[in-house]
Amino acid sequence: MTDFPVVPTGENVTRQVLSDHPEMMVVAFRFAAKGAEGALHNHPHVQSTYVKDGRFRFTLGDEEREVGPGDSFVIPSEMVHGCVCLEPGTLVDCFTPRRDDFL
């Protein structure tokens, strides 16, 4: 159980910090509907993404990749990335260092 609030980040998308430390943060992103998007963006943090459930099409730099339950990958610092939800589900992301903008 986490004490952090569920925060809307877009239409049919929410995020909730699960745990944090100055050097790392774990965040759940929940996509409630097909077509919901995680907009293209980049940041200085290294990010790992684990697909808890659902299906997603990710853009990672110049590459597109479809991922599903159990898939995991790392996004380097400053790489432009985003996703489109193909089947509702949850992504569990880890950031290092933590995303202070999420607190």
Q: Architecture in CATH?
A: Sandwich
Tell me the domain tally: 1
Overall geometry comes to: globular
Indicate the mean pLDDT: 97
Instruction: Give the radius of gyration.
Output: 13 Å
Major beta sheet summary: 8 strands, antiparallel
Number of beta strands: 8
Q: Separation of termini?
A: 17 Å
State the fourth-level CATH superfamily: Jelly Rolls
Provide the β-strand percentage band.
over 45%
Write down the CATH class: Mainly Beta
Which stretches of 5+ consecutive residues score pLDDT under 50? Answer: none
Instruction: Please count the helical segments.
Output: 0
Protein name: Cupin domain-containing protein
Organism: Octadecabacter dasysiphoniae
Pfam family, one: Cupin_2
Domain Cupin type-2: 33-87
List the helices and strands and how they pair.
Elements: E1 7-10, E2 13-21, E3 24-31, E4 37-41, E5 46-60, E6 63-67, E7 72-75, E8 81-96
Antiparallel strand pairs: 1-2, 2-3, 3-8, 4-8, 5-6, 5-7, 5-8
